[in-house]
Design goal:
It comes from Pseudomonas leptonychotis. The protein is of the alpha/beta class. The chain has 10 helices and 12 strands. It is 32% helix and 16% strand.
Length: 310
């Protein structure tokens, strides 16, 4: 079986795959012309959606495509085919995303950036820090990553509330509500964390009316998709004191253009889409598991339903 690897790190992926599945014939690259020449002879594609979407646009199509990203937006363009099995990266981001979020929650409670500013100014600052215990954490998006985050935060004594497509019981969340409850729950949150995928229903959710009901002491973290946030409304909310701060990992356009208001917005920290990078070793384990399932005709992990966008 020939496998096309369309990845910036295609050599590393090929090395890892040869260790676990030496019977596979591997073809890799990261240049469009090179990938187009290889794709026709490969029944399975593994790689970045932005590198694979052009192949689909040229009329090429795999027997199965495994994305190395959790987000598969480039593959959902309306002109692209949807009659092939597509799986996204799942089950490999929970730990690293949880570490990212916890890092910023603790930095906020311990006021690390204020301490750094005071040090730069040579000003002694012994303000009293706070604890996460008892804080209300609202996680918007309770899928694989959101659930992992909740389990990671539970030992810190926070109150965990989730928002999903519909109401459900999902421990360790105290409750999980439908998306329509976002405004009322955001008003009670000390931490508002977006982990939602990019769908028609999740775009522009975080706008001026929503930020207006937030606690002035609340921290907003967006590690889901940039299109969920109305950029100008977030900047205005920070300027008007509707939020204590924001941590933005994902933006509508990346890299963020020079001159964008986020660069100079008060109390806004940009982290450059670094919250949960793909670990090639974990991704290869997922791919091998799904390859076994695909050969057996079994259900694939991370199966994408094109109609819902994830």
């Amino acid at each position: 079986m020939r496998v096309l690897i369309a990845e910036a790190e295609h050599a590393l992926y090929a090395h890892l795959l040869r260790e676990q599945a030496p019977e596979l014939e591997l073809c890799g690259g990261d240049q469009p012309t090179e990938l187009a020449a290889l794709a026709a002879g490969c029944s399975v594609w593994l790689g970045q959606p932005d590198l694979l979407a052009p192949l689909l646009r040229q009329g090429l199509k795999p027997g199965w495509l495994q994305s190395t990203w959790a987000g598969i937006t480039p593959l959902l363009a309306p002109e692209l085919p949807r009659d092939y099995p597509l799986t996204r990266a799942v089950g490999i981001f929970g730990q690293v995303m949880a570490e990212y979020v916890l890092c910023h929650l603790l930095a906020h409670e311990r006021q690390l950036f204020a301490a750094l500013a005071a040090q730069v100014e040579q000003r002694w600052d012994n303000r009293r820090p706070h604890s996460l215990a008892g804080r209300n954490v609202l996680i918007v998006g309770t899928g694989d990553i959101g659930l992992s985050l909740a389990r990671f935060l539970a030992p810190f004594g926070v109150k965990l509330v989730g928002i999903a497509s519909s109401r459900r019981q999902q421990p360790p969340f105290s409750q999980v509500f439908g998306l329509e409850t976002l405004p009322s729950l955001a008003a009670e949150a000390d931490y508002l964390i977006n982990l939602l995928p990019d769908t028609v229903l999740t775009r522009d959710l975080f706008d001026a009316p929503l930020f207006a009901v937030c606690k002035p002491s609340a921290l907003f973290i967006n590690a889901g998709r940039g299109v969920a946030v109305v950029d100008a409304d977030l900047v205005a909310a920070l300027e008007q004191g509707h939020l204590a701060g924001a941590v933005i990992d994902v933006c509508r356009q990346e890299p963020l253009l020079a001159g964008h208001p986020f660069w100079n917005a008060p109390r806004l920290l940009l982290t450059g889409h670094s919250s949960a990078p793909t670990d090639p070793r974990l991704l290869v384990q997922l791919f091998i598991d799904n390859l076994t399932r695909w050969r057996a005709g079994a259900e694939l992990r991370g199966w994408v339903e094109f109609s819902r966008g994830y």
